[in-house]
Amino acid sequence: MKNTEYFRNKNILIIGLQRSGLSAANLLCRLSAKVSITDNQDNSIIRHNMGCLKSDNVKVEVGIHSRDFSKEAELVIISPGVPNDSLPVVWAKERGVPVISEIELGWMLSPAEIIAITGTCGKTTVTTLVGRMIESWGKRSFTCGNIGNPFTLEVEKMREGDFVALEVSSFQLENIYKFKPKIAVILNLSPNHLDRYNDMQEYIAAKERIFLNQDVNDYLLLNYDDELVRNLSKKAKSKVDYFKKGGSLNPNQEAVLAISKILNIEERIVFDLFKNFKGVEHRMEEVLEINGVKFINDSKSTTTEATVWALNNIPSPVILISGGREKGNDYSNVIAAAGNKVKSLVLIGEAKDRIRQAFKGQVKIFEAQDLKEAVNEAFAFASAGDTVLFSPMCKSFDMFSNYEERGRLFKEQVSRLAGIKN
User: Fold this and answer.
1) pTM of this prediction?
2) Phi (first) and psi of residue 187, to 5 degrees
């Protein structure tokens, strides 16, 4: 790793004890930093993560943020879910203490070439494909970031000549300073996270930080078919190239193909990958078929655009399960795609009232108390040849710790249902 001495004996405060915070804390302890962690939540996940800390010297406060606890910090690392108006961030900025994201920390230490991928939809699929493409090319690749494994969990394994396929969210980009990927990719931009951003322009401003520090030796890949993305080229200092939908390839595949050309990877490797790729977990994942009814887990769908894509790619009639925590989505965007395809809509979670209002008069609507009841109701409404699609259009945090847990529970309930019906 690079720059390891920078962290030795430095007082570092980490805000948030979820996956990225835990990973950063354990890494920094191994680098002999003086680590403190503050999290205003106190629940079973936080308590579990406290038990996963690898050093007894880490100071931890949970259920509160206190000024005294953070007063010695010389550097603050913020977890993606923590807003920039969080009290420890405010206190740090009052004292002139730098606040950086976990991906900035990973970048400071990593000797590998970074391919950073962002956008409203498709990040996980493209990041997964890029990682597998590089491995098929015969190089070592690490797939991490917003996709699952934090950057800081993998960085100690990296060497010069390796590659990182890094999925980055707008939240992670808010607090970068020198983060500089060799290749930056912006897939698409549509309204998202408007519970966190004041408007679309603020959301775009966060996303475009992915190429903030690039220079003429770096590459920026933009989706030509998306006008908002295409126009970002005016701000770039790096070499700009475009991808767009064409022929038999979808935009995600075109993006991967464009990356392969920059890296001089043979097209044969790329097309073999596309042919054999079965998708990623929780994204249009076929679970089971029960009595002629197919169940699809699309738990990773937290936007209306993702649900529209799912509906457009399912040929059969659909019973749609949606809902979760509100994030400012315009659910009416789904009505056209739902058309005559969605036979009924089963709603769960905090956002169900807003979704019901958007779909009122368009489709039969039912409510469920939890995901188990929603799966059972959806199956009861379905006929042989139908598809039950779990595509929430919302965040998971009202009922689940993350979209992975949400998707796993959906699959578990479908499996239970299969045991009952078969």
Assistant:
1) 0.84
2) -80, -45
